[in-house]
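Moderator note: this is an archived Q&A kept for reference. The question asked for a predicted structure of one protein chain; the sequence and the answer are reproduced below.
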Amino acid sequence: MLGFLKRKVAPDVRRIGPQSAQACARIHAQSFAHPWSANEFEALLAGRDVVAEAAMTKSLLGRLFGRRQKLVGFVLSRQVLDEAEILTIAVARRFRRQGIGAALLSAHLASLAGGGTKALFLEVESGNDAALALYAQFGFARVGARKGYYPKGAGEAAAALLLRRDFR
């Protein structure tokens, strides 16, 4: 595709529900060794304690020809009282390194803060440098680790780093 047609376009970030389960499952499968099924996403997205948002975008051609927006990334958190945990965040392979993860996380943090969240937690694989850089950019700090949490194959497993961000 011609370079000028793949220009960065800021996504629209909006709340999603169970109707987005299939799209979330497809993107999750591109992003994780042990992806969640559409049924698992449907159950999560129907939960009253889950805050779910998606990045929606069109290509330049799509905007020129009036095509509808496509879900290209999402983030899900579970909120209980004044704490929340990011359950998963993923961006479609073709749309990575275009600022979509940062746009999603920024909007999501604002939604959680507006809902009364005072502390946000997440787990991330210790070797996921791109994710760690993104979370550091948004003020997350390491508060712990779980050794051997993420299976890597051949009997190996990577540590999960536990991160926290406080809202002021």
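Archived answer notes: Confidence is low (pLDDT under 50) at residues 1-6.
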